[in-house]
Amino acid sequence: MKQKLFLSLCLISGIGFAQAQGLPTNPEPGKCYVKCITKDTFKEVTETLQVYPAYTTLEIVPATYKTVEETVLVKEATERYTYTPATYETVDVSYLSKEGRTDLNIVPATFGRDSRTFETYPATSGWEYKILEDCPSVNKDDCVAACFVEYPASFRDVQFTTLATDASTTSNPVPERMSTYKKRVIKTPARMDKIEIPAEYKTITRQVVDTPATTRSTTIPARNETVTRTVLDKKGGITTWEEVECALLDPTVIPIFYELASARLTPASKRVIDETLLPILKDKPVSIEILSHTDSRGNDDYNMSLSQQRANSVVNYLVGKGISRSRLSAKGYGESRLTNRCSNGVDCAESQHKKNRRTEFRILNN
């Protein structure tokens, strides 16, 4: 009797949760569903547009000139100078030929050892769903129990070096050295004597504008054309639920292979995409995520970039087949999600590395 009461409460709670979350109201046992949002629809309209505006053309009427005479400066007034040089005498000047200094001797640093415990993975918890055994109902969803599970954190001891005494120096002073040099100094300063030179002038003739240039205008009419354009016909955004295979909600490996250090799709890989991904995208209005990976050989940053390029190549191929880019997502993981032990520095066979060079896909909720 207690078990029947518990099953009834689970059934009522499950229906209420589905309604609260906007889930399918009549799901079938063992089926999986993804939420899809309808896209905008468009239509073509024809209208007349002005493709060239009305404008005015201008014709220039040239200016006319007349000749006038004018006196102009052809050489400016200036000054001429005569120079009398300075006279010198020689003196001795003392100077510091080598500065004093302080030499340093290095006393090296000394070190000690210590350790510290780090949390390498935090404690986690969450809900897990379990189907009760001996369920009397035909619908297994009536016998689902929710359990809150906790997993403990992981820790690691790390050894490290500590600084006991830092490096230092001792000083040893070295005295400066003095010396002298010869220097010629002015005994009698140089001087300049100024002589004035007058300006020179000349009479010239030049042409000046008598009547300015003018314009004559002509109006050219506008030109119109009839064009066809695409406009929004019906706004999307309506939520629907589509039934899909449950396995497609988790990452599914598809046999797409690339040439070494290349993101180019081979003809064989394109056939695989045509046979696996295109039918799903054409049959149902779902969105998918493309996930690409590399093996551990090569530079980590290069592998991350290469995996993103490979995921993008699949997306671009699907777009070329008529799939909207808004339904596609590309993500490269480089060598961060290896399926075996073949990480950096581990000796593995080519067949083991090949398992990590994979492309996966999964269906997303919009």
What descriptive keywords fit this protein?
two-stranded antiparallel ribbon; disordered N terminus; 366 residues; signal; Bact_OuterMem_StrucFunc; 60s Ribosomal Protein L30, Chain: A; 18% helix; alpha+beta; OmpA-like; four-stranded mixed β-sheet; single chain; 4 helices; 51% strand; 22 strands
Structural features, described:
The chain is of the alpha+beta class and 366 residues long. Among the domains are: 2-11 and 29-44 and 234-364, 60s Ribosomal Protein L30, Chain: A; 106-172, no CATH class. The chain contains 4 helices and 22 strands. The protein has a 4-stranded mixed β-sheet. Strands 1-18 form a two-stranded antiparallel sheet. α3 (300-320) links the parallel β20 and β21. The longest helix has 21 residues, at 300-320. The protein is flat and about 130 Å long. The two termini are 42 Å apart. Residues 1-20 have low confidence and may be disordered.
| Amount of helix | 10-25%
- What's the level 1 CATH class of the domain at 2-11 and 29-44 and 234-364? Alpha Beta
What's the alpha carbon Rg, rounded to whole Å? 45 Å
Summarize the helix and strand pattern as letters: HEEEEEEEEEEEEEEEEEEEHEHEHE
For the termini, the CA-CA separation is 42 Å
**Superfamily at the CATH H level of the domain at 2-11 and 29-44 and 234-364?**
OmpA-like domain
How many H/I helical runs?
A: 4
CATH architecture of the domain at 2-11 and 29-44 and 234-364: 2-Layer Sandwich
Keywords: Cell outer membrane, Membrane, Signal
Organism: Ichthyenterobacterium magnum
Domain OmpA-like: 245-366
Signal peptide: 1-20
